[in-house]
Design goal:
This protein is α/β, with parallel strands linked by helices. Helix content is 27%, strand content 24%. It has one domain: Spore Coat Polysaccharide Biosynthesis Protein SpsA, Chain A (Alpha-Beta Complex). A hairpin with a 2-residue loop joins strand 2 and strand 3. It binds cytidine-5'-triphosphate and magnesium ion. Cytidine-5'-triphosphate binds next to helix 2.
């Protein structure tokens, strides 16, 4: 069984006030997407499929030669992240066997540590279902509710002991994942939630806080600082 990676990079970055979609914002002299691809190429993936918006003109402007031809752009992004990943899996299926492993990783997580990736691959390759990088919640968790005046107040304090934050990469067999994403109901914001709808329980592999998702403008400086330490 071979290992492949797929990076959805067809979003528009509406929560981050940038001049261009965040996957192309410069970080340590390279577009954010480049760092996500580099991390994936640090484990033994055959190819990294990058799912782009159909009208993307930015990808071709950058230099991907560091990855020795392993990066393959697919111009088939969809309206949601879930659509982009599903379309990418369909487009990649000519080169990928249904039983091959697929690592799906956000372009918006450029700082995933090599050790986290290695742990995910090692633990999931020995697992019947696959799994995800995730982090036990460290903060106290409050449930919110508005009072009569419309002010947000604490409605309850939640038990955090069983709560984890899902990260990417998420690693599943390509065929199972495509089927799960195709058939999933409701809001599907990661691969695992589609797999869960099949009644399967993805493995949780402990990641780290360095693997932040760049979502808001202030996250860019944090990501740049993390990359500068390497
Ligand atoms: N993504 C995608 N196709 C979409 C939406 C998102 O490929 N239709 C990708 C993004 O490019 C990103 C990843 O999914 O790599 C995670 O999404 P998110 O962090 O939400 O990025 P955006 O959707 O671009 O940002 P926002 O939600 O703030 O608009
Ligand atoms: Mg989004």
């Amino acid at each position: 069984m071979a290992l492949f990676a797929l990076v959805p990079a067809a979003g528009s970055g509406t929560r981050l006030a940038g001049a261009q979609p965040k996957q192309y914002l410069p970080l340590a002299g390279r577009p954010m997407l480049w760092h996500a691809v580099r991390a994936l190429c640090g484990v033994e993936v055959e190819n990294v499929f990058v799912v782009l918006a159909p009208g993307d003109t930015e990808f071709a402007r950058h230099d991907w030669s560091a990855f020795g031809g392993r990066v393959e752009p697919l111009y088939c992004g969809g309206a949601t992240r879930r659509d982009s990943v599903y379309n990418g899996l369909v487009a990649a299926s000519a080169a990928v066997d249904v039983d091959d492993w697929m690592l799906v990783h956000d372009a918006a997580r450029p700082c995933v540590p090599r050790a986290d990736l290695a742990a995910l691959v090692a633990e999931c390759a020995a697992d019947a279902i696959g799994g995800i990088l995730a982090l036990p919640i460290a903060d106290t968790v409050k449930r919110a509710g508005k009072d009569e005046a419309g002010v947000q107040r604490v409605a309850a304090t939640e038990d955090r002991t069983q709560l984890w934050l899902a990260q990417t990469p998420q690693m599943f067999r390509a065929g199972l994942l495509a089927q799960a994403l195709r058939d999933a109901k409701g809001s599907v914001t990661d691969e695992a939630s589609a797999i869960e709808q099949l009644g399967l329980r993805p493995r949780l592999v402990t990641g780290s806080r360095e693997n932040l998702k760049v979502t808001y403008t202030e996250d860019l400086a944090i990501a740049a600082a993390i990359l500068a330490t390497r």
